[in-house]
């Protein structure tokens, strides 16, 4: 969800005033649960506090709350009272999620004897800030997260914290991609030293971080760091190294794409370049995500010469039609991989929804062909539809009568060919 428009960062000034501004930006009056209904001692932590300071809150931000105890019990009670759903996140660690009216509110039992103990066990300092809102709002920042925000730095609280949950290694890269910041030098060394721990994290959690990372504004810089650190080496092609991947989003192509086209094309192009099909499967990407990456990867390879030069003009008519059908919605992701000189014409034609090649459709559907030509459903009908789609795509037919005449000629030719094959046998 995009951040609210018109918000600026608030990173300097009196700590008390900052706390008041954070609370105002969080708009607690719009929450689906009143702050007074939350467990006594609840404190807001993590991303919502950070994003309020940076001016990047969305209209329904995820709220992460630390409570003194009984987080799961309280989440269940609130779900029952307010008509929401309670999802158990970690029963042993007493963590639960309240889903209510399009909002996500996580409750977790405080780790350690004090809130400061809890914050010191978190991943990165900019996530280790908290807002107490019982009475006058107070901003707690025991590790120096506010200073990191001012300096545009992502720094780990402690190396041991990264080791406790290896997913945090990848989360640091996701944070620099989303916030357009840089990694602290010591943290960079920590990530490299502990890179072999990442496979201990659940594949689904790694996948969720990558989905967010490849869609982020500074994704290409983060991906370059991932490659340098060899963080995803267990899921990459054997022998792959930094420099093997093209950094898609830094090309001038992005200037040719609209915002919505970039949101559609860039994450797919980046993910396809970053991980092979086997790696995507191991990380439990969805079937649709796998299919999109597989098709894009296929056409990157098949529209490129042996010298590495894009050559879509050398595809046969049948190959070109298949390309357009496979990548109809995702064609900009392929175009991103080409030199700028090849891109403008393809984008202009792709944007024209009436272009019969870039948006191929048969001139007649199967039912119409069956009724007009008295043919039965089956492989012949499918092949005929494909033939008519090709003829329409290249402008050789445009009307219903032309389509029927072309279909009759094609069927006659098929019958003749069948008779010839039988006579040869």
Short description:
49% of the residues lie in helices and 9% in strands. It is of the alpha+beta class and 425 residues long.
As for the CATH topology of the largest domain, it is Beta Polymerase, domain 2
What's the total helix number? 20
Please outline the major beta sheet: 7 strands, mixed
Beta-strand proportion: 5-15%
Can you name the CATH architecture of the largest domain? 2-Layer Sandwich
Mean pLDDT: 92
Give the overall shape, derived from the CA principal axes: elongated
Name of the CATH homologous superfamily of the largest domain: Beta Polymerase, domain 2
Domain unit count: 4
In whole angstroms, the N-to-C terminal distance is 65 Å
Describe the protein in words.
The chain has 425 residues and is of the alpha+beta class. The chain folds into four domains: 1-151, Beta Polymerase, domain 2; 157-245, Hydrophobic Seed Protein; 246-360, no CATH class; 366-424, no CATH class. 49% of the residues lie in helices and 9% in strands. The protein has helices spanning 15-26, 47-54, 71-82, 115-119, 145-151, 159-164, 167-179, 185-193, 203-214, 219-229, 253-256, 259-274, 277-282, 287-302, 317-326, 331-335, 343-351, 366-373, 379-393, 400-424; strands at residues 43-45, 63-67, 85-90, 95-100, 103-109, 130-132, 138-140, 153-154, 182-183. The strands form two sheets. Strands 3-4-5-2-1-6-7 form a seven-stranded mixed sheet. The protein has a two-stranded parallel sheet with strand order 8-9. β3 (85-90) and β4 (95-100) form a beta hairpin. α7 (167-179) packs parallel to α9, α12 (259-274) packs across α14 (287-302) and α19 (379-393) crosses α20 (400-424). The longest helix has 25 residues, at 400-424. It is elongated and about 90 Å long. 34% of the residues are buried. The mean pLDDT is 92.
């Amino acid at each position: 969800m995009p951040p609210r428009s018109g918000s600026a960062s608030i990173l300097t000034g009196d700590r008390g005033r900052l706390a008041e501004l954070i609370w105002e930006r969080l708009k607690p009056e719009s929450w689906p649960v009143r702050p007074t209904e939350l467990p006594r001692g609840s404190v807001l932590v993590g991303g919502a506090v950070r994003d309020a300071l940076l001016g990047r809150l969305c209209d329904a931000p995820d709220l992460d709350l630390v409570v003194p105890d009984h987080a799961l019990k309280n989440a269940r009670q609130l779900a029952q009272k307010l008509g929401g759903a309670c999802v158990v996140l970690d029963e042993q660690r007493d963590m639960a999620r309240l889903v209510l009216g399009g909002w996500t509110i996580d409750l977790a039992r405080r780790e350690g004897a004090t809130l400061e103990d809890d914050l010191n066990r978190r991943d990165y300092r900019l996530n280790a800030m908290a807002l107490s809102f019982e009475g006058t709002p107070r901003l707690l920042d025991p590790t120096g997260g506010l200073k990191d925000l001012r300096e545009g730095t992502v720094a780990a609280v402690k190396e041991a914290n990264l080791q406790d949950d290896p997913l945090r290694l990848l989360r640091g890269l996701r944070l620099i991609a989303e916030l357009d910041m840089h990694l602290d030098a010591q943290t960079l060394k920590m990530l490299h030293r502990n890179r072999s721990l990442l496979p201990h994290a659940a594949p689904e959690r790694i996948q969720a971080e990558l989905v967010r990372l490849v869609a982020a504004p500074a994704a290409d810089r983060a991906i370059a760091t991932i490659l340098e650190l060899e963080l995803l080496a267990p899921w990459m092609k054997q022998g792959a190294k930094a420099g093997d991947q093209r950094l898609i989003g830094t090309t001038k192509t992005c200037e040719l794409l609209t915002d919505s086209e970039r949101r559609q094309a860039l994450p797919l192009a980046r993910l396809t370049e970053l991980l092979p099909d086997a790696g995507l499967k191991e990380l439990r990407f969805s079937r649709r995500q796998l299919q999109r990456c597989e098709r894009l990867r296929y056409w990157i390879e098949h529209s490129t010469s042996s010298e590495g030069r894009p050559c879509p003009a050398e595809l046969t008519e049948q190959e070109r039609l298949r390309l357009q059908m496979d990548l109809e919605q995702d064609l900009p992701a392929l175009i991103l991989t080409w030199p700028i000189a090849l891109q403008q014409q393809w984008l202009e034609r792709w944007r024209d929804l009436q272009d019969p090649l870039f948006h191929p459709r048969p001139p007649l559907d199967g039912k119409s062909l069956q009724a007009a030509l008295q043919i039965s459903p089956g492989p012949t009908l499918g092949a005929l539809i494909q033939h008519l789609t090709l003829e329409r795509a290249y402008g050789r037919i445009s009307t219903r009568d032309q389509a029927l005449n072309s279909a009759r000629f094609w069927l006659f030719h098929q019958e003749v060919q069948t008779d010839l094959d039988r006579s040869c046998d």
